[in-house]
Design goal:
With about 160 residues, the chain is an all-alpha fold. The protein has a single domain, classed as Serine Threonine Protein Phosphatase 5, Tetratricopeptide repeat, CATH 1.25.40. Helices cover about 75% and strands about 0% of the residues. It has helices spanning about 5-20, 25-35, 45-55, 60-80, 85-90, 90-105, 110-125, 130-150. The longest helix has 21 residues, at about 60-80. The protein is globular and about 40 Å long. Mean pLDDT is about 75; it is low at about 145-160.
C-alpha cells in the first residue's frame, strides 16, 4: 500500500514544501491528504501525515492535537501488524514528539511520562538483539525505498 500509494507521494511533497520554507502550502496539502485517508485502512499514512502536520503547527494546542492523532494511528499500525512490542517500543519517536507537544502546552507531567515511555521503547528496541535490529532496519529501508518507488527485496518482518 505505502509503496505505490499516491497519497504517500503527496505527504513527501508536503515535507518538501515545509523544508523549502513554505509551511502554509505544506499544511494545505497535508490537510487535503488527511481528509483522503481512511481511519481504518490507512494507519501508516496517517502516522506520517499527522507527525508532519504536528511539526507545522504554530499553535501549541494544535500541535498537541496532531501528535495525539499520530499516536492513535501508530497504535493502530502496531495492533494491525501484531507487533510483539508495546506502542512505546514500536514508535518511540511519536512519543518524543508528543512529549514536546505536552511541554509546549505546559503539561510537564504528561511530557515526562511520554519521555519515560519513549526511553523505555528505545531500550526495548535494543533488547531485540542484532537480528531484531537488522529486521527493523530492513523494514524501515523498504518503507523508505517504497516511498521513493525503488523496489527492494525486503519482506516486512512484522507481516509474519
Amino acid at each position: 500500500m505505502h509503496a505505490t500509494d499516491p497519497r504517500a507521494g503527496r505527504i513527501e511533497r508536503g515535507l518538501a514544501l515545509a523544508r523549502g520554507g513554505r509551511p502554509q502550502a505544506a499544511r494545505r496539502l497535508l490537510a487535503v491528504v488527511w481528509q483522503q485517508l481512511s481511519p481504518i485502512d490507512d494507519a501508516p499514512l496517517r502516522v506520517d501525515c499527522a507527525r508532519l502536520m504536528a511539526e507545522l503547527q504554530d499553535d501549541p494546542h494544535d500541535r498537541l492535537c496532531w501528535c495525539l492523532r499520530a499516536v492513535t494511528a501508530a497504535e493502530q499500525v502496531r495492533q494491525s501488524c501484531e507487533v510483539p512490542l508495546p506502542l512505546y517500543g514500536f514508535y518511540p519517536t511519536v512519543l518524543c514528539a508528543l512529549a514536546d507537544a505536552y511541554r509546549l502546552v505546559g503539561d510537564d507531567d504528561r511530557a515526562q511520562a511520554c519521555e519515560q515511555l519513549s526511553s523505555a521503547g528505545n531500550v526495548g528496541i535494543h533488547r531485540l538483539g542484532e537480528a531484531g535490529l537488522r529486521e527493523m532496519s530492513a523494514f524501515a529501508s523498504a518503507r523508505i525505498a517504497g516511498r521513493l518507488g525503488v523496489p527492494l527485496p525486503v519482506q516486512d518482518p512484522w507481516a509474519r
